Amino acid sequence: MGILQNGRWVEQEVGAASAGGEFVREHSVFCNWVTADGRPGPTGEGGFRAEAGRYRLYVSLACPWAHRTLIFRRLKGLEAMIPISVVHWHLGPDGWSFEPGEGVIPDAANGKRLLRDIYTLADPHCSGKVTVPVLWDTQRRTIVSNESADIIRMFNTAFDALGAREGDYCPAALREEIDRFNERIYATVNNGVYRAGFAGTQDAYERAVRPLFETLDWLEERLRSSRYLCGDRITEADWRLFTTLLRFDAVYVGHFKCNLRRLADYPALWGYARELYQWPGVRDTVDFGHIKRHYYGSHRHLNPSGIVPLGPVLDFEAPHGRG
Ligand SMILES: N[C@@H](CCC(=O)N[C@@H](CS)C(=O)NCC(=O)O)C(=O)O
């Protein structure tokens, strides 16, 4: 993989740790919002009104950040309004591509071979990482946003007047509580597994793994007495946690060395993860083939042979026993 510098592609190792052995995630570059009436959102500029068929979502089925956006697209019934492209699972020297492969959906909007071509189409002098997800505006021919946290909030409400499915996963009354969960879960779980996996020193690794499991222990406690994170109503905070839990035993325990405990060792968290997996429509957004082949095959500094383990055997369809 690599990075764009003033529109030029510079190769770089995947997950390269910066000074001190610590993996530091970069900020997203495009930060506009699709809104119901086209007025500006919390960041960026206006002019991105919600319209059926106007936007295209680029995702990787492997990526937990992109996965959130796919789940929200599905929960809100936006499939017909917002078509998708799916990149190949392998993140190689050219970054994400649309090389043919099982489950890959080519770039029908721009006919590009590489995701970075979409970034330079939006901004020929673009600098930064070329990440998924990307929300593309076919009208203005630019990227609205490449920040999953923002994209799911757009999907949550912006298309409601156009016939999106009912459901508010971030109600105003719970916003503060959701944000508090998100903050801790982002730092120690969603990004914590990457900080562990891409750590360049023993110390950086331990500084990621300990808080990760402290948070999982805390969540286990919470979910023993509460159906969802914020009580009896499922919210954005649950869906943001889910995409990391889903990948935990299949990838993060082995490949990223997050192995103090498995998800399967946490009865409440494991039942909760199965419940969310079995939520109407959600299992259709899950592709363990892409997930396992991406991580084990793309991070050759962590797994030089590229061999993808056959296990563990996981049954997300087993009754969850919650409720
Ligand atoms: N802040 C971004 C992060 C997205 C992200 O890091 N995606 C990874 C895949 S899991 C990616 O595309 N990485 C490519 C790269 O680092 O070059 C978001 O949540 O949308």
Automatic annotation (TrEMBL):
InterPro entries registered for this protein in UniProt: Glutathione-S-Trfase_C-like (IPR010987), Glutathione-S-Trfase_C_sf (IPR036282), Glutathione_S-Trfase (IPR040079), Glutathione_S-Trfase_N (IPR004045), GST_Omega-like_C (IPR047047), GST_Omega/GSH (IPR016639), Thioredoxin-like_sf (IPR036249)
An annotated GO cellular component: cytoplasm
Listed CDD domains: GST_C_Omega_like (cd03190)
Marked site (Lowers pKa of active site Cys) residue numbers: Y252, Y295
GST C-terminal domain span: 171-298
EC number: 1.8.-.-
Pfam family, one: GST_C_2
Binding site for glutathione: W96, K129, V130, T131, V132, E147, S148
Entry keywords, A to Z: Oxidoreductase
Catalytic residues in the record: C63, Y194
One of the record's GO molecular function terms: glutathione transferase activity
Coiled coil: none
PANTHER family named among the record's database cross-references: GLUTATHIONE S-TRANSFERASE OMEGA-LIKE 1-RELATED, GLUTATHIONYL-HYDROQUINONE REDUCTASE
Name the record gives this protein: Glutathionyl-hydroquinone reductase YqjG
Top-level taxonomy: Bacteria, Pseudomonadati, Pseudomonadota, Betaproteobacteria, Burkholderiales
Gene that this polypeptide is encoded by: yqjG
